[in-house]
Structure formats: C-alpha cells, structure tokens
Amino acid sequence: MCMVINNINTLFINSLFNTHTIQVLKHTIHQTAINFQHILYTMHHTPYILPLFFVGFLSTL
C-alpha cells in the first residue's frame, strides 16, 4: 500500500513539474516572439539601423 501511495506522489510531482516546465517554455517562446517583433518594428521605423546591425554582426565574426 505504501508503495502505491509513493508512486502516486511521484506521478503527481512529475506532472506538476512538467506543467511548470511547459509554462516556462511557453513564456520564454512568447518573450522571444515579443522581442523579435520589437526588433522588427524598430528596424522598420529606423532603416539605417539595419546596415549598422549588419556591420556589427560582421565585426563579431
């Protein structure tokens, strides 16, 4: 009986952990999407940033 309760507890904890992990992943993906949109918006409204960004990118290579 004790073994069964232990297994149920483990399953419960695992499912909680998985739910939390999925939430964190969703949040991270959402943030990345927002940041990406923000960058695109900025680039759209300030076209001269693109060449600067490109030069900066090349200099890091």
Written account of the structure:
The N and C termini lie far apart (62 Å). The protein has two helices and no strands. The protein has 61 residues and is mainly alpha-helical.
Brief summary of the model shown:
The chain has helices at 2-45, 49-60.
Helix-strand topology string: HH
Our measurement of the CA-to-CA distance between the termini, rounded to an integer number of angstroms, reads 62 Å
Main sheet record: none
Low-confidence runs:
none
How many β strands by DSSP? 0
Number of helices: 2
Q: Which structural class best describes the helix and strand composition? A: mainly alpha
Roughly how much helix do the residues carry, as a percent range?
over 70%
> What Rg do the Cα atoms give?
22 Å
Mean pLDDT: 80
Secondary structure elements and their pairing?
Blueprint: H1 2-45, H2 49-60
